[in-house]
């Protein structure tokens, strides 16, 4: 027996003074309402209603139970309403961990709009690319790029990056423009390493739907996107980055896209 539903039916019967009228307001068969109230009385081991051929009236116990039902159902309605408002207007602390490149170049430009929409959120942004223990560190969500190695995590794709291979004009003037991805093995690159991607000595490409890697050599490796960008701009070598992260540099001519 659904006790909440039984309480609601009992209230309707008490207010209407009739099983038939209560059933009409609930759009239920009168037999359903009658059997539900009988089961409720059986469960409570007390008679709640006096029944006559013309009218239904409350027993003393029924009057007491009616008052309690009103309080309980009002509290439930208030709780549901409060919860709905909370969902409609999120609030509280939200701790997110993400790589530096995503934080600086993708998330940061959208933060003003985020706070206009969710002014009651206290946002904590951790910048890293390491393995995070969500429970131990109190992190609500982690944003990462690449393949998901831990299948025990609940993950959802947020989007896709288009990766571009970049070089500074000074570098290309000195070493020339690579005619193909395979030619990059004869060029110098700035390596990128992180806790999530240990290999830093290859660039990946997609050709005709197939992914392949090209080994690249170099004498410098970094683990922070901002420094990675500056090293490439300074002519230390080629770099492979998400296009939306370097779009401004490409547009302004600071880089060439290989």
Question: How would you explain this protein's 3D organization?
Answer:
- Residues 1-59 form the HTH lysR-type domain.
- Strand 8 and strand 9 (210-215) form a beta hairpin.
- The chain is built from ten helices and twelve strands.
- It is of the alpha/beta class and 258 residues long.
- The protein folds into three domains: 3-88, Arc Repressor Mutant, subunit A (Orthogonal Bundle); 92-142, Periplasmic binding protein-like II (D-Maltodextrin-Binding Protein, domain 2), CATH 3.40.190; 163-257, Periplasmic binding protein-like II (D-Maltodextrin-Binding Protein, domain 2, 3-Layer(aba) Sandwich), CATH 3.40.190.10.
- The chain starts with a helix and ends with a strand.
- It has a three-stranded parallel sheet.
- 43% of the residues lie in helices and 19% in strands.
Features:
258 residues; Arc Repressor Mutant, subunit A; D-Maltodextrin-Binding Protein, domain 2; three-stranded parallel β-sheet; three-stranded antiparallel β-sheet; 43% helix; rod-shaped; DNA-binding; Transcription regulator protein of MDR efflux pump cluster; WH-like_DNA-bd_sf; LysR_HTH_N
Cα(first) to Cα(last) distance is 70 Å
CATH architecture verdict of the largest domain: 3-Layer(aba) Sandwich
State the total count of DSSP E strands.
Answer: 12
Number of domains: 3
| CATH class group of the largest domain | Alpha Beta
Quickly give the structural class: alpha/beta
Topology as a string of helices (H) and strands (E) = HHHEEHEHHEHEEHEEEEHEHE
Q: Identify the overall geometry.
A: rod-shaped
What's the pLDDT, averaged over the residues? 86
